Amino acid sequence: MGLRRRYRATGADLPFGDPTRAHDVAMEGYFWRFTDPTSGRVVVALCGVHRRGDGSRWANVAVAAHPGDVVRARDVPTGRADPARLGVVAGDGAFDAGPGHVRVDLREDACLDVRLHEVRAWPRRAFGGLGSGHLVPALSQHWHPHVLGGRAHGSARFGSECLDLTGWRVYAEKNWGRAGFPEHWWWGQAHDFLDADACVAFAGGEVGVGPVRTTATAIVVRAGSTTVRLGDPVVSPARVHIGDGRWRLSARGPRHAVEISARADPRQAHVLPVPLPAAGHSVAGALQHFAGELDVVLRRGRQTVFTGTSSLAGLEHGGQARLADELARRRAREGVAVAEAEARA
Length: 345
Hints:
Elements: H1 3-8, E1 27-36, E2 41-51, E3 57-66, E4 70-76, E5 79-81, E6 88-90, E7 95-98, E8 101-105, E9 110-117, E10 142-147, E11 151-158, E12 161-164, E13 169-177, E14 185-190, E15 198-209, E16 212-223, E17 226-230, E18 238-243, E19 246-252, E20 256-263, E21 270-276, E22 281-300, E23 303-318, H2 320-344
């Protein structure tokens, strides 16, 4: 194995590399988000390829939709992430995706077949969504948004319900690391700002190299041809306040500053799978809101570059402890509802 390949196998990327290519680490995760502001519908598709403790590969696949608590997920015994370009396949046709297409086939449960058009890809720069963090070998978690806008052409089916996704807006990202998800994380994304050509994405949580741990947050805002990345711990540190269904982030760099405020009802979140790479299976582990409210203001100096509000924002505040608390509250509410129904009967 050459020196460059060994370096990438730590999860790191050299300047002007392609972060979407597989790194040969324990977890390679791929995520697409499709939205239709006219109907208020959202569909997401995800696939992760992971390494078991014995070195073999497996994958988890899921598609989900809003409105409704619609989640279809499956673990499959095989998967492959492409080391030459963006690409992932899993199972016997369960998932197949590349730069211009996403296909999911979970048989009678759900399927999706979409091609991407008018893609606003990540601009050619020295680094991806994490900035200089991509240089750090053996970092526990990396993140890179590679589709910051675009249009879908295709369809999705959930049971007997069919959706025409043609014309829907698209966002896509990749995350990878030498272990599974962190103990605590936050994430958000929005691209439905009326007719504005804009996209916002952020991701943060506990990261580390070996026993050294800290928290970090990366923020990306694209407004037209301007793409700004903030959150570098030295040059543009992010301030984050998250809790009780609210996300507040701000960051200031040498040229730009951004403020993000978002909110969502914790009771309306979908429960998505999170992989346990070495164990060879996934668990219910992420509470993701599909239609939160997000406000963003991007400034350059004293000039406002972009301001907008989205009502179809994706939002997460993840962690096993938080998930357990929310599931317990849901079970309690369901128990009360059953008791009231029985009393009325």
